Amino acid sequence: MGDRGTSNYSDVTDFILVGFRVHPELHILLFLLFLLVYAMILLGNAGMMVIIITDPRLDTPMYFFLGNLSFIDLVYSSVIAPKAMSNFWSVSKSISYAGCVTQLFFFTLFIVTEGFLLAVMAYDRFIAICNPLLYTVQMSTHLCAQLVAGSYFFGCISSILQTSMTFTLSFCASRAIDHFYCDTRPLQRLSCSDLFILRMVSFTLSGIIIFPTIIVIIVSYLYIVSTVLKIPSTEGRKKAFSTCSSHLGVVSVLYGAVFFMYLTPDTFPELSKVASLCYTLLTPMLNPLIYSLRNKDVKEALNKLLEKKSVIL
């Protein structure tokens, strides 16, 4: 690789994804576990999109956002899982430089987009519960499309900045990424460049992305709780809360895993990998389950779809 002080990032043609530091005998078990989880992600999220597209009763802003959430979960888990599974059987465990850039770019794009989309979904629930008579007017098709497009836009900008700055670093310490996918923090450990500017940009982006989305979610739910508690009937309060419980579950799993990973010191990389598993694979697997098990409309639409298939067969 050359001298540490003079080696440039352009000298690197590939990286090695170290993955999980376990006995080789456990690789088969991990592969089967990853395969099972990924199959559930594909089935659950693709199924959710099919249900939302085919059932006219679900042609509402809430399910439009949920369909986009399923698409995002499906894509960003597919950016990570296939390569991670193939590395359980690979001796070299290598990923090309271009492959690493692509993986980081798309993963960052979709995970940031999901954060903004969850904030949008919280705002949607706020309007639905606090201003139900104006819901269809305020949450128009045009506005919904703009909110989703804006989520993707901010995700794209964040990804371009994060990826371009990460891969302008000089990687001369090692080619071995101590992770199961290309992520910013383990890549920074390989660099001999000055990381001050990159860390400041990362910190700023995190502040711009995380705090506004969390504030929108918290403020929306404060208003929602305040409104629901004023509903006189127990059944009415239960119905109102049931429309929000699924979203709160998804938010808790995603943000809990993200905070845990980024608050874990670099001296415990295995803990970071476990936390990363939560939002790269566990969250995309749980999202359709949470929404289907706790949502009456989705369960009815699924039963209707299964009845149609049984009649055809």
Automatic annotation (TrEMBL):
Keyword vocabulary terms for this entry: Cell membrane, G-protein coupled receptor, Membrane, Olfaction, Receptor, Sensory transduction, Transducer, Transmembrane, Transmembrane helix
Residue ranges annotated for the G-protein coupled receptors family 1 profile domain, each copy included: 44-291
Keyword Zinc: no
InterPro entries the record matches: GPCR_Rhodpsn, GPCR_Rhodpsn_7TM, Olfact_rcpt, Olfactory_GPCR
Localization annotation: Cell membrane
Transmembrane keyword on record: yes
Pfam families associated with the record: 7tm_4
TM spans (from-to): 28-51, 63-81, 101-123, 143-161, 196-224, 244-262, 274-293
Main location: membrane
Topological category with respect to the lipid bilayer: Multi-pass membrane protein
Functional summary from the UniProt entry: Putative odorant or sperm cell receptor.
UniProt record similarity statement: Belongs to the G-protein coupled receptor 1 family.
Designated name of the protein: Olfactory receptor
Gene name of this polypeptide: LOC139183148
